[in-house]
């Protein structure tokens, strides 16, 4: 199993690497395109601001590579948002893998949403063994709208897509690496997905 | 529904967990990594590590401890104490801290908040505010509450939000260590004033205090140390009590 975490300079990726280590899998941090292409599984992380993260992706040429990957890819938090069509954060054009827009929560709720909320309407192998309304840890000010590609939804101000899937591409708004034992189960499920590379 | 968070705070000095009463008379309460792991298993929603000696002695925060905690603990944690630069924060986040908390350094140089929010995102910038109520007015204090300033709590809270703080950790110096309850009136004012989450800190003595700070103080999270470290309030019992009081918690 060759698991890589795309390292393009966006935020805390160590904790994702540590989470996989707890599962007994060594994840490689890299921005090398060939290494990414030859991996069995790819994690696309991201913490921070969307437009600067996108700029870093473009500078490294990764923006063109990621949408062409054939193996399972898991975007986490900002990683997931960048896989969408666009985000209101810095008026940024995304990678367009998920056909949905990312918007900002209004000031009728505290922004960012910070803490543990539940995921519902689970429909993906990614959530094997995870029960409806399981708690996950979230920190975000922007959300992907409800859409057909949603494989989980969460309620904060409104119902939004807290996880997305299209073909081999998966995205989660929450942080499975910080969501206790249940979060680790999701990472384990991702590792067990079939690779069609 | 987003749940209210229970956050044990581990005050760290020389790599050990300590908790002072009114910030003095330190008592040893264990190894931070072991304690952190235990709290994660017992249902804590998040952890805060504050290097309480850092600001006073100019000591840098403990990278090695951060590394070990990040390796072994599967819930989010914040690191604070003596953080005064973008480089400090970069190092802490690089080793697995999820958020950093800045306090005196933000008061001394408010632009630090903007710089951190811009570089790392607001979500990882917690601004800790220690304040004391003096003749009815709340004033910000520095360096673990030892140095008074003329800055008013509510003005400062507004400003840190504007500058990009993702969260405010408010400690009432009047309540800290007393075990008589949180500063709910000031907390409620804060919560209405800003649109970022507020963590209540200082004064936890029993379970009702937590109920009160969520209901009356409108806090988004509550932080405590000794009542958790010495087993006076088991976290699971606390969460069940909160649930009985119709406060949403992760159970």
Give a description of the structure.
The complex is a heterodimer of chains A (197) and B (251). In chain A, 24% of the residues lie in helices and 34% in strands. Chain A has 197 residues and is α/β, with parallel strands linked by helices. With 251 residues, chain B is of the alpha/beta class. In chain B, 38% of the residues lie in helices and 27% in strands. Chain B is built from 11 helices and 12 strands. In chain B, helix 1 runs parallel beside helix 3 (63-72). The longest helix of chain B is centred in the first third of the chain and has 11 residues, at 32-42. Residues 20-29 of chain B have low confidence and may be disordered. At the A-B interface, helix 1, strand 8, strand 9 and helix 6 of A face helix 3 and helix 6 of B.
Relative helix content of chain B:
25-40%
Strand content of chain A: 25-35%
**What profile does the largest beta sheet of chain A have?**
7 strands, mixed
* Count of runs of 4 or more consecutive helical residues of chain A: 6
Instruction: Determine the mean pLDDT of chain B.
Output: 89
Strand line-up across the major sheet of chain B? 1-4-5-6-7-10-11-12
> Kindly, what is the distance between the CA atoms of the first and last residues of chain B, rounded to a whole number of angstroms?
13 Å
Largest interface, counted with CB-CB under 8 A? Answer: A-B, 38 and 35 residues
List the helices and strands and how they pair.
The complex is a heterodimer of chains A (197) and B (251).
Chain A: E1 3-6, H1 14-22, E2 27-30, H2 33-37, E3 41-44, H3 50-60, H4 62-65, E4 73-76, H5 78-82, E5 84-87, E6 92-93, E7 98-104, E8 113-119, E9 134-140, E10 142-144, E11 150-156, E12 158-166, E13 169-172, H6 180-192
Parallel strand pairs in A: 1-2, 1-3, 3-4, 4-13, 5-7
Antiparallel strand pairs in A: 5-6, 7-10, 8-9, 11-12, 12-13
Chain B: E1 5-13, E2 16-21, E3 24-28, H1 32-42, E4 47-51, H2 52-57, H3 63-72, E5 77-80, H4 86-94, E6 99-102, H5 104-108, H6 111-120, E7 125-134, E8 137-142, E9 147-152, H7 153-163, E10 167-172, H8 184-193, E11 198-201, H9 207-215, E12 221-224, H10 226-229, H11 235-244
Parallel strand pairs in B: 1-4, 1-12, 4-5, 5-6, 6-7, 7-10, 10-11, 11-12
Antiparallel strand pairs in B: 1-2, 2-3, 7-8, 8-9
